[in-house]
Amino acid sequence: xxxxxxxxxxxxxxxxxxxxxxxxxxxxxxxxxxxxxxxxxxxxxxxxxxxxxxxxxxxxxxxxxxxxxxxxxxxxxxxxxxxxxxxxxxxxxxxxxxxxxxxxxxxxxxxxxxxxxxxxxxxxxxxxxxxxxxxxxxxxxxxxxxxxxxxxxxxxxxxxxxx
Length: 163
Description:
Elements: H1 19-42, E1 64-68, E2 74-76, E3 79-81, H2 83-94, E4 101-106, H3 112-124, E5 129-132
Parallel strand pairs: 1-4, 4-5
Antiparallel strand pairs: 1-2, 2-3
């Protein structure tokens, strides 16, 4: 570093030479420019191929679509159930399959935390891949529109404390 002293004798005035700092910053910039392209190529997404087939309204029986309904309940292939039942059903249905894929869907007004909880439960139940289902413009959410009644929660019991 270059330093200059001004004044007479005891007082020292120092200046910082910024040239080495600029050199170091340019070298770091070049290093990051070299490292970044290979890193980005490793994060490529696998996009599905486009087909001209018209999708059917009903979900095939071997395809699993789990959903979080508007009221906070869960459904698997349009059948409402609890989160524990969903985990059991997913585990049973994926047991013999070679491709362990489950599609997840959620009502637009559903709680985000319940969606994450459902996805974690599905992953823990043996799903290797999760696909996210989405609605087309103008479609209604139908993943929970089964005719089966919603599961009934156990009745709350009141505990009294004598004291």
